[in-house]
Task: structure prediction
Amino acid sequence: MSDTNALEVLIQSLRCLPGVGVKSAQRMAFHLLQHNRAGAETLARALNEATHSIQHCALCHTFTQAEVCATCLDERRDTSKLCVVETPADQSAVERTGAYKGLYFVLMGKLSPLDGIGPKDIGLKKLFDRALDGTVHEVILATNFTAEGEATAHVIAEGLKGRGLQLTRLARGVPVGSELEYVDLGTIAHALVDRR
Amino acid sequence: MSDTNALEVLIQSLRCLPGVGVKSAQRMAFHLLQHNRAGAETLARALNEATHSIQHCALCHTFTQAEVCATCLDERRDTSKLCVVETPADQSAVERTGAYKGLYFVLMGKLSPLDGIGPKDIGLKKLFDRALDGTVHEVILATNFTAEGEATAHVIAEGLKGRGLQLTRLARGVPVGSELEYVDLGTIAHALVDRR
Result:
């Protein structure tokens, strides 16, 4: 296969996708070339379009093609609440609950000192400016309940403490529909402490 | 995220990759946009280049950018032997052994009636023409030792029977370096039958 240079370049390029090693990349390249060249061309166009047109929302930092995203522009939203999430996927999960009508700030990551990701890399400065711009009264910390997510919430809480903002964190507890017998002990302990 | 049309198009387009569902596609899209836009652009270029320049070798049916691939053009190869494999990855595995100096025919698939893949879809006609072009004396069936691979080998053997060709199949047996205790019984049974 020494003359199939374009094929090897394609296999190498596919490895930039997260979770794709050399075997998966080979399988993907063969599949696209053999069964779905139209899909490959569509993907190429979508990649070009996305890298050239998608930027970060000036207010909430999520991905958008406009200066400010549709959620931030929506006038029916409660501008006094700001929900801080790690990724657009997390934002979308909160949004799908239908239980929240405020605005968001999307960190696009989390503090992770082991991976060299510090406060500057996840735009904490931008978050602090946004939270202190006068319109926000409550900041809801909805980072994940992992070690990094908790650390991120802690750093944000420290940074915003004593600035007249109400700081809240998503409730920790037993998931809906679960039986205590099968819930992990740390979760039950937290649910006991936070009982109401 | 209703205004991020390019993002949703990208997520949908990534799902054309085998083994990528909606969650993986989201993760890939976010990763590329957040951490590796250069990689995304390289991938788009590689996809375009590959879909436009890669075709099938006129002789062995593998992927190549030329009319005939480098392996088929290599004059040091034994043109009397033709090794039939399912995919370019299989061909590359045989090639890396260094134990084979003949030519190849790459089916680019296998018979799989359940998936609607019949003899026409894997170019058996082209293989028969190639095997009967007068230069080939031995056809080595190196399809995989799966149900579909065995069926494919059987159909090819039936099609070429009685045409003056020597038809061989890769030996089945105990893998190098393995202990009998841990080898599956079907393999040991085959190794017993094919003992020499």
User: Anything to note?
Assistant: The longest strand of chain B covers residues 78-85. Chain B touches chain A through 59 residues (CB under 8 Å).
